[in-house]
Design goal:
This protein is 31% helix and 11% strand. By secondary structure, the chain is of the alpha+beta class. Strands 1-2 form a two-stranded parallel sheet. Helix 1 links the parallel strand 1 and strand 2. The chain is elongated and about 50 Å long.
Length: 70
């Protein structure tokens, strides 16, 4: 039997003076937004998405599709 795998991720870039706990909280929030949007997603934290990050929505038909959104 064939197994299907999916992957969702939340990304956050460390900010100057930010605690590790705050960084992980932002990454965790982005992860849950990725899961809410569907499978095979990569979502940037709100703070990082405003830094010229791509704001495109990719199809979830392919395991290689990635979405960067606020």
């Amino acid at each position: 039997a064939e197994r299907g795998y999916t992957c969702s991720a939340g990304l956050a870039e460390a900010q100057w003076g930010e605690t590790a706990e705050a960084l992980l909280e932002r990454a965790d929030a982005a992860l849950y937004r990725a899961k809410d949007q569907g499978r095979n997603r990569v979502v940037l934290s709100d703070r990082d998405a405003g830094r010229g990050a791509p704001r495109r929505r990719a199809s979830t038909d392919s395991p290689s599709s990635i979405t960067a959104s606020a």
